[in-house]
Automatic annotation (TrEMBL):
Signal peptide: none annotated. This is Amino acid ABC transporter membrane protein 1, PAAT family. It comes from Paracoccus denitrificans (strain Pd 1222). Keywords: Amino-acid transport, Cell membrane, Membrane, Transmembrane, Transmembrane helix, Transport. It comes from the Bacteria.
Length: 219
């Protein structure tokens, strides 16, 4: 079967609006993941054995299981426990939890390379721990780990395509619908791949510009 250039081009008008769904889900999930990763990072520094042990088990579970399984657990498992979620809600929560685990690992690595001087000075002045985190540690840490955070966002964008399996109508699901009606799966899927690639490329370029701006300010 020859490649149909017309079918390839016709797919984009439907795929581009669907990409907004992927982007919206990714941004919401990233926001929740950043909050979750920050909370986990702070809790891991408390030194409470039971708490850090439980977080360690959670990290091992999330990192050791496919994200697709986690999506299914949220979508099919939580209703069994009495918590009904829409496909988008289940998908956002699953991706956010998965990403928060990777973000807390990124933050832990960033903390290990930070200059302890400002923190030690704040402690010596009697500044409260909460203020040290919000005014001293986190602002520096977020800037320091900006590049891996951008990479994590692009990973999340790619992960949103998995939500097609729980009926979320995003780029991949839309491409499948196009393929089912046109009987041209190659053209539809290739167009979907290009749309997602362009979306991640734009995010990466934006991240580099932000990183360059912060580097210029520090300089």
């Amino acid at each position: 079967m020859d490649f149909d250039l017309a079918a390839f081009g016709d797919a984009f008008p439907r795929l581009l609006p669907a990409a907004l769904t992927n982007l919206t889900i990714a941004l919401v999930a990233m926001t929740l993941a950043l909050i979750g990763g920050t909370v986990l990072t702070v809790l891991r520094t408390t030194g409470i054995g039971l708490l850090t042990g439980a977080i360690g088990v959670l990290i091992s579970f999330i990192r050791g299981t496919p994200i697709l399984v986690q999506i299914f657990l949220f979508y099919y498992g939580l209703p069994a426990l009495g918590l009904d979620l829409t496909p988008i809600q289940a998908g956002v929560l699953a991706i956010a939890l998965n990403s928060s685990i990777f973000i807390t690992e990124i933050m832990r690595g960033g903390l290990s390379g930070m200059d302890p001087g400002p923190v030690e000075a704040a402690i010596a002045l009697g500044v409260r721990a909460r203020t040290i985190w919000t005014r001293v540690i986190l602002p520096q840490l977020y800037i320091r780990i900006l590049p891996p955070l951008v990479n994590e966002l692009t990973t999340i964008v790619k992960g949103t395509a998995l939500l097609s399996v729980i009926t979320v109508v995003e780029v991949l699901r839309t491409a499948q619908q196009i393929a089912n009606t046109t009987f041209r799966p190659l053209e539809a899927l290739l167009a979907a791949a290009i749309v997602l690639f362009a979306l991640n490329l734009a995010i990466s370029q934006l991240g580099r510009r932000i990183e360059t701006r912060f580097a210029a300010r520090r300089g």
